[in-house]
Amino acid sequence: MSTIQKTVDVRVPVSTAYNQWTQFEEFPHFMDGVESITQRDDKNLHWQVNVGGVEREFDAEITEQHPDERVAWRSIEGPDHAGVVTFHRLSEDETRVSLQLEWDPDGFVEKAGSLLQFDDRQVAGDLKRFKRFIESRGTETGGWRGDIDRAPDATGR
Question: 20 to 30 Å CA-CA from 58: which of 82, 103, 106, 148?
């Protein structure tokens, strides 16, 4: 399992950064390799990606979401991955966006890319593009302010 952690500071209020991140179908505008995302309902997404010439389709579910704080997800079909993005208010008009992604590279190309840290650079580039996207707009393209609580684990926590 490969773990990537990256952070970017954006010059917009926390609610603007968070609202934009909830617009999953807009991800192809700033995430290189994401061809499309279809949001099926509040919790379920279908992704189509092409990274390094490797095409993948998979379903993911939002496992936790709290306005202006965090969005967490995990794959439910396809490549094994999970992640969380958190939003931290630095000032009235500046927000820190922190992303942690865990994924299991599959096949020679993905494993080699992970060893060479291409995945790490990909995520860093995506966050930089998110920064340019949201700062150039100054406002979000939409937003979903619903709350999704994390399901208890097997121990009931």
Answer: 148
